[in-house]
Amino acid sequence: MNITIEYYGRLQDSFGNNSEKTETTGSTLLDVFQQQCQKHQLDLSVDDIRPVINDSFAEWSDHCQEGDVIGFLPPAAGG
């Protein structure tokens, strides 16, 4: 399926861009994230990252569909 992935905060530096269109065989958000980490040769934990589907917070076990916009949001820094 074809999806758009948006990276926020420090993940933009990690993945080297702020968004990309990609074809995935993953069915859950966790599958997609792991595939992207493998593609970009990154070893990142999902413990502090919030997944987003079509501008709404989601769970890692949620399924994505053709044309979805998936986002990965790390915690904000500052004080």
Keywords, separated by commas or semicolons:
79 residues; alpha+beta; Ubiquitin-like (UB roll); 5 strands
Secondary-structure element series? EHEHEEE
The low-pLDDT segments are: none
Calculate the mean pLDDT score and round it.
Answer: 93
- Euclidean distance between termini CA atoms: 40 Å
Q: What Rg do the Cα atoms give?
A: 12 Å
Going across the major beta sheet, what is the strand order?
Answer: 2-1-5-3-4
CATH class: Alpha Beta
Name the overall outline.
globular
Count of domain modules: 1
Q: Can you characterise this structure?
A:
The chain is α+β, with helices and mostly antiparallel strands and 79 residues long. The chain has one domain (2-73): Ubiquitin-like (UB roll) (Roll). Helix content is 22%, strand content 28%. The protein contains two helices and five strands; from the N terminus they run E-H-E-H-E-E-E. The chain has a five-stranded mixed β-sheet with strand order 2-1-5-3-4. Strand 3 and strand 4 (56-57) form a beta hairpin. The longest helix is centred in the middle third of the chain and has 11 residues, at 29-39. It is globular, with a radius of gyration of 12 Å. The termini are far apart.
Helix and strand arrangement:
Blueprint lengths: L1 E6 L2 H6 L3 E5 L5 H11 L10 E4 L2 E2 L11 E5 L6
Parallel strand pairs: 1-5
Antiparallel strand pairs: 1-2, 3-4, 3-5
